[in-house]
Design goal:
Blueprint: E1 4-12, E2 17-27, E3 30-41, H1 43-56, E4 65-69, H2 72-79, H3 82-88, H4 97-107, E5 112-116, H5 124-138, H6 146-149, H7 152-155
Parallel strand pairs: 1-4, 4-5
Antiparallel strand pairs: 1-2, 2-3
Helix pairs in contact: 1-4
């Protein structure tokens, strides 16, 4: 059986700052590119958002999916099972709960494999995802990352 391949990258111009993600979906000879920017966010949020949007874009869950990312935060959190422990502790002390819950709502629907790729090392799809993410972050994005900007813990001074 064939595999759907999803390549992802996130970018933040400042951390926090304007950010964006780039995602490439490949299946056979079909290719789809997706990117979007946010006015204020973090790099980790964009790395995770790229994975989520890729999965949400799929029209089937019957074909295995391999996700390629240069984010150790995303790859390790999932493959080492950290995120499942965070759920048991209600994400106490952890960031990006909204996005992790969004990811987890998709996780069990797919047969997933995660592959870490070294960023900025000439991997063609990773380089293209980086271009998409940087472009989305630098085009004066106006979209609000609700989960970041409305998070009382993120914006608390005390």
């Amino acid at each position: 059986m064939s595999t759907i391949r999803i390549f992802t990258d996130g970018s933040s111009r400042g951390n926090p700052g304007p950010g964006g993600f780039g995602t490439i979906l490949k299946y056979g000879d079909k290719v789809k590119e997706i990117s979007h920017g946010f006015r204020l966010t973090t790099n980790n949020r964009m790395e995770l958002m790229a994975v989520i949007v890729g999965l949400e874009s799929l029209k089937t869950s019957t074909i295995p999916v391999t996700i390629y990312s240069d984010s150790k935060y995303v790859i390790d959190s999932i493959t080492l099972g950290w995120v499942f422990g965070w759920v048991k502790k209600s994400f106490k002390g952890k960031k990006n709960k909204d996005l992790w819950l969004r990811y987890l709502s998709l996780h069990s629907q797919f047969e997933l494999k995660f592959v870490w790729v070294k960023g900025h090392a000439g991997h063609p799809e990773n380089e293209r995802c980086d271009q998409l993410a940087v472009q989305a972050a630098t085009n004066k994005p106006k979209t609000i990352d609700e989960g970041y900007e409305n998070d009382s813990e993120t914006n608390s001074l005390f």
